């Protein structure tokens, strides 16, 4: 299978991103042809400081590798290094309805009817569809929050195929199990997010031990004192159980049993230590890779390999559409 996914270089890669996305990326790379992209052009739908964006791109690339993505097995590259993404996005935009883009919940949430919302925020899903279709991807591993984006990508691919012939492979999303979504630590009814204002709402992969402990200890729970998985009534505790389960590999029911009659304080303390231990090797490896010369070399090599595929796809697409003089 051809696998494609992307992560924005917005810094603060957190355990939600890791458990929801990066860990799957690593698992998939042994059996499949994987392409992993750092989507810097998506990042500028919101204005960014240039120097910081560059740093964030390299940070994310180093993190990819630190969690176990092997740039020799997988193609790892930066979106803007492959011009085909923007080129294909335009062609797809001509086959996308403004109505369907206006219905995207992410756009509605981020623009809130604001007349000066950037057009790039509106066409964000089309660039994402281009990312996926450019590599004839079969499977796209993402968190459940991306369902609508995968759906519109499929709709656009099917529409183009109906109009022009067998232009695109229609991809499938590979979603997380429900419940595997990691929620914010201070507000457990919304998802853990890179962009949330409160840094204690998330555990970033590069947080030091003090910060990890503080985030866990200060996390919002409830007052009934029972360590029980019940996302509707006990979202905070259920979220912590999920994180515990993900890092320990133990089923939630075993953890509930283990902590029966034990207070939140002890449970949180042990979860904090578990998280510290899980993230320590990632941080160590990140620091080595981030400083190394090989990082840029790996991205350059990734861009060349990605470009080779992208150019082939673009030639095919242009033929179907009758674009260019040839
Ligand atoms: P933001 O919330 O600031 O928009 P983000 O934290 O969702 O950003 P993305 O770059 O949009 O980060 O997501 C990268 C990948 O991580 C995606 O596949 C996304 O679905 C997944 N992901 C993001 N947040 C979570 C979460 N809380 N739990 C599980 N997976 C998540
Ligand atoms: N929108 C995605 C990031 C993203 C992506 C992609 C994911 C951009 N292009 C292509 C999978 C495939 C997000 O915010 N997580």
Strand and helix map with partners:
Blueprint: E1 2-7, H1 15-28, E2 33-38, H2 40-43, H3 50-66, E3 75-78, H4 84-93, H5 98-102, H6 105-111, H7 119-122, H8 124-133, E4 139-142, H9 147-164, E5 172-175, H10 209-217, H11 235-248, H12 252-258, H13 264-291, H14 294-321
Parallel strand pairs: 1-2, 2-3, 4-5
Helix pairs in contact: 3-13, 4-8, 4-14, 8-9, 10-13, 11-13
This protein binds adenosine-5'-triphosphate and L-tryptophanamide (LTN).
Adenosine-5'-triphosphate is lined by residues 7-8, 16-17, 20-21, 142-143, 145-146, 181-182, 191-195.
What's a concise summary of this model?
The chain is mainly α. The chain has 2 domains: 2-180 and 293-321, HUPs (Rossmann fold, 3-Layer(aba) Sandwich), CATH 3.40.50.620; 199-286, Tyrosyl-Transfer RNA Synthetase (Orthogonal Bundle), CATH 1.10.240.
Task: Compute the separation of the termini in Å.
Answer: 32 Å
CATH class of the largest domain: Alpha Beta
Q: In the CATH hierarchy, what is the superfamily of the largest domain?
A: HUPs
Tally of DSSP helical segments:
14
The shape is globular
Pairing-aware structural class of the strands and helices? mainly alpha
Quantity of strands, as a count? 5
Beta-strand content estimate: 5-15%
CATH architecture of the largest domain: 3-Layer(aba) Sandwich
**CATH topology (fold) name of the largest domain:** Rossmann fold
Q: Which molecules other than protein and nucleic acid are bound?
A: adenosine-5'-triphosphate, L-tryptophanamide
Widest sheet, order of strands? 1-2-3
Helix percentage range:
40-55%
Work out the radius of gyration.
21 Å
Largest sheet, strands/sense/barrel: 3 strands, parallel
Instruction: Encode the helix/strand succession as letters.
Output: EHEHHEHHHHHEHEHHHHH
């Amino acid at each position: 299978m051809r696998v494609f996914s992307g992560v924005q270089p917005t810094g603060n890669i957190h355990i939600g991103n890791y458990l929801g996305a990066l860990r799957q990326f690593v698992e998939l790379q042994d059996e499949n042809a994987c392409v992993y992209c750092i989507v810097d052009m998506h990042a500028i739908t919101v204005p960014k400081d240039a120097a910081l964006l560059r740093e964030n791109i390299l940070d994310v690339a180093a993190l990819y590798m630190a969690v176990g993505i092997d740039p020799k097995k997988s193609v790892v590259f930066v979106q803007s290094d492959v011009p085909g993404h923007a080129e294909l996005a335009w062609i797809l935009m001509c086959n996308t309805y403004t109505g369907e883009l206006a219905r995207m919940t992410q756009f509605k949430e981020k623009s809130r009817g604001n007349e000066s919302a950037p057009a790039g925020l509106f066409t964000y899903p089309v660039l994402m569809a281009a990312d996926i279709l450019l590599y004839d991807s079969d499977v796209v591993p993402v968190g459940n929050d991306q369902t609508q984006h995968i759906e519109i990508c499929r709709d656009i691919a099917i529409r183009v195929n109906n109009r022009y012939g067998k232009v695109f492979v229609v991809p499938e999303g590979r979603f997380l199990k429900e419940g595997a979504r990691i929620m914010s630590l201070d507000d457990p009814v919304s998802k853990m997010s890179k962009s949330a204002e409160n840094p204690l709402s998330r555990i970033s992969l590069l947080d030091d031990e003090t910060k990890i402990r503080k985030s866990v200890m200060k996390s919002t729970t409830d007052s009934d004192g029972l360590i029980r998985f019940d996302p509707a009534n006990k979202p905070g505790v259920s979220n912590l159980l999920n994180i515990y389960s993900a890092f320990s590999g133990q089923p939630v029911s075993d953890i509930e049993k283990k902590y029966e009659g034990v207070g939140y304080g002890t449970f949180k303390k042990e979860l904090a230590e578990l998280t510290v231990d899980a993230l320590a090797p990632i941080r160590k490896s990140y620091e080595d890779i981030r400083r190394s010369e090989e990082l840029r070399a790996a991205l350059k090599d990734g861009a060349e390999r990605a470009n080779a595929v992208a150019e082939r796809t673009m030639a095919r697409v242009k033929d179907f559409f009758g674009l260019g003089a040839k």
